[in-house]
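Aim 2, interim progress: modelling of the adenosine-5'-diphosphate-bound target.
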Amino acid sequence: MNVLVINCGSSSLKYQLINSDTEAVLAKGLCERIGIDGRLVYQKAGLDKEITEAPMPTHKEAIQMVLDALTNEKTGALKSLSEVDAIGHRVVHGGEKFAKSVVIDDEVIAAVEECNDLAPLHNPANLIGIRVCAELMPGVPQVGVFDTAFHQTMPAKAYLYGLPIEYYDKYKVRRYGFHGTSHSFVSKRAIEFLGLDKNNSKVIVCHLGNGSSISAVVNGECVDTTMGLTPLEGVVMGTRSGNIDPAIMEFISKKEGLDIDGMMTVLNKKSGLLGLSGGVSSDMRDLEAAAESGNKNAENAVDVLCYSITKFVGGYVAAMNGVDAIVFTAGIGENDGKVRKAVVDNLGYLGITLDEEANKKRGEDIVISTADSKVKVAVIPTNEELMICRETVSLVK
Ligand code: ADP
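Predicted structure of the complex, ligand included:
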């Protein structure tokens, strides 16, 4: 089957066309600056990237351009659109309504719409992608794969906040967690790759990218995760603060004369590694370079990140009463051996030892703990698009 995977943002759209039998990516790319001017990046497997600047007033023109590129006579990956067998959409927030991926119909669209409140920037964009695909490719089955779904197995003690319960009852204020597609993909792969018994396994997945989250997975099911009602909670991230004392909001807003929107901008866009480093960068590579050349703020930012990860990992070991494997993924998790070492070195009390040579390798599934380490540590590159493709196929086949 050919599956078109779509990840629709408010002004951008990422896509991949995947052959589900071979799991090969036939073509991929993105549309940027939708509603501003418009730029299509298209790359057929084995060929160079093509970049086309063209007006994209709405997502409809953007998706039409993707479909035209996919069926282009010279560089298209398909002869005609009839070769698209199914479409898989990333949907950010499924609230408590979606614990699994679903085939999209009118009822599902209405239920996703009801979750818009919880992800006002993302869900409406995801829905536009779904509606436009239905219009441009009528009859092709569409599947929604939710960032929150994998975490729906968390027990109440993990998802309830210490707030008046009426806010949960009335507004469903609770921990949902995000990056679920990645946590699901990586934890499943870890169990397989490390030869663990799925029904008797405790795995911690550290998804560390621009946005970062950590999850605790027992017997293949998520029991806790660091992101919350929104992706702001948890580990220190590129520009997001992660956990802070909530009273800091009042304190800073009074000192700086900020309203709630201004405060949220600080916490989402100006904090984390960027904020801690005094504006040096939100990118780990820049920070490590700056730290090496003596920038104390950059050094502190890296230390705060590593310490923050370590505390969550340690907390999840306690929450699960043990751990069989700790797995690193996403941009920092897959590439940054120094961060992995800093985290693992602090967990020596668990009998974990790092294989320093293996920790230098990149780009593949790899065990980075020594053979006698009591807990396995691995790097597993995430692949959310492939996971969305697999979910889509399992529902439409
Ligand atoms: P997103 O959350 O946007 O998908 P990614 O998973 O691509 O982000 O991760 C981006 C982060 O990964 C950035 O902080 C970047 O610096 C970091 N990163 C990528 N490559 C490396 C590398 N070789 N060494 C250290 N950090 C890296």
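The chain has two domains: 2-146, 196-379. The longest strand covers residues 24-32.
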